[in-house]
Specification:
The chain has helices at residues 37-50, 68-77, 91-98, 114-121, 126-138, 157-167, 187-194, 206-213, 226-229, 257-261, 264-271, 285-292, 298-323, 332-338, 346-349, and strands at 8-12, 54-58, 81-86, 104-108, 144-149, 171-175, 202-204, 230-233, 238-241, 249-252. The protein is of the alpha/beta class and 350 residues long. The protein has a single domain, classed as TIM Barrel (Alpha-Beta Barrel). Helix 1 (37-50) runs parallel beside helix 2 (68-77) and helix 8 (206-213) packs antiparallel against helix 13 (298-323). The protein binds iron/sulfur cluster (2 copies).
């Protein structure tokens, strides 16, 4: 039994998605019913009482859920900090409902050109992301841009880093963790990304890179502490264990999250975290990031260093730039268009 409460709730409120990202499986599978507001509110209350600090409303595309604004408000009223990642298709239509209730708002942006971003996302989303950045800035939000680093989009990284520097917004570089039928990031790719780690307004968590260089999770000496650090809830009001991507069990939350979390069944699965055959070599960022906080080692230190830099960029450097009128006031699409176009391939960019 773990005596330290988990940090983060990954709340899958819908399995529907309006995007068709080449590197994602979620849209390829049939979607079940969306989460019910009453279940979400009860689970958020229980999560706060269990000691969780953050809730990530995820999916699917979370903005497809009509009740998302009420969920966000409830989470904050329970003292939880909220995270929302969106492909931005619906953000311009729903921004007014969300304003002020998302602590960490992320727009996915995988390329500096519409052609490449829309190809990777399978939908014409680039213009919506640009419009969303402008609207969020007008509303006083401070969105981050989330770059999923793939073997075939790294040549966009220099341009996106410069774009974010001019806007005073953080670019989060997230190495892809499952990439159907294509190669994963190799050591050269990771070294290329590492060059951006010290740049202002670029977040590179080198702990993810070190984990990959070590071959990912070991099932003999697991670094994964997903069940200790993360709670994963399905839209159908079930606890998913140990993680969404390799679930071994779903347990109904009809009796409440707290009762379920302290049950013998969860404790048995906790003892197995990181030890299933599918855990060999695992590098799932969203579960390892909280896992890094569970043991002080090199992975912990790299992860903490990245978070300290993120906080400095977002809460010190960016406000200073805004105060001194050093951010570029032009619309996002205009700034992007003024940047030099990327070379055709990652190799040429290096
Ligand atoms: S927007 Fe997110 S959930 Fe939807 S297909 Fe893309 S990566 Fe998957
Ligand atoms: S698949 Fe990965 S995240 Fe899930 S339990 Fe195994 S090591 Fe942890």
């Amino acid at each position: 039994m773990s005596w330290i409460p988990p940090l983060l709730l990954h709340y899958y409120i819908t399995e529907r998605c309006n995007s068709r990202c080449s590197f994602c499986d979620i849209w390829r599978q049939p979607a079940g019913p969306d989460a019910l507001l009453e279940d979400v509110e009860r689970n958020l209350h229980d999560a706060a009482r269990l000691g969780l600090r953050f809730v990530d409303f995820t999916g699917g595309e979370p903005l497809l859920h009509a009740d998302l604004p009420r969920m966000l408000r409830r989470a904050r009223s329970e003292g939880l900090r909220t995270t929302l990642t969106t492909n931005a298709m619906l953000y311009p239509d729903r921004a007014a409902e969300l304003v002020g209730n998302v602590d960490f708002l992320h727009f996915s942006l995988d390329a500096s050109t519409a052609a490449d971003h829309d190809r990777l996302r399978g939908r014409p989303l680039f213009d919506r992301v640009m419009a969303s950045i402008d609207l969020a800035r007008q509303l006083g939000e401070k969105p981050d841009l989330l770059f999923t680093a793939l073997p075939d989009n790294l040549h966009h990284l220099p341009g996106l880093a410069e774009f974010c520097r001019r806007l005073g917004l953080v670019l989060i570089v997230n190495p892809v963790f499952s990439h159907r039928e294509k190669r994963e990031l190799n050591p050269e790719d990771l070294a290329f990304i590492d060059q951006f780690a010290r740049r202002p307004f670029v977040y590179v968590n080198r702990a993810f890179h070190l984990l990959r260089k070590r071959g990912g999770n070991s099932i003999v000496q697991p670094r994964c502490r997903v069940v200790d650090s993360v709670v994963v809830i399905s839209p159908q009001n079930q606890l998913i264990l140990p993680c969404y991507h390799h679930e071994q069990a779903r347990i109904s939350l009809a009796e409440g999250l707290a009762a379920c979390w302290h049950s013998a069944a969860v404790n048995e699965l906790r003892a197995q975290q990181g030890r299933w055959p599918a855990c060999a070599g695992c590098t799932l960022n969203c579960y390892f990031d909280p896992s890094f906080a569970c043991r002080i080692d090199a992975l912990f230190m790299h992860s903490m260093a990245a978070k300290i830099k993120y906080a400095r960029d977002k809460y010190v450097r960016a406000p200073l730039m805004r105060t001194l009128s050093r951010t570029d006031p032009r619309p996002a699409a205009g700034i992007m268009a003024s940047l030099s176009k990327p070379d055709d391939s990652p190799a040429e960019a290096r």
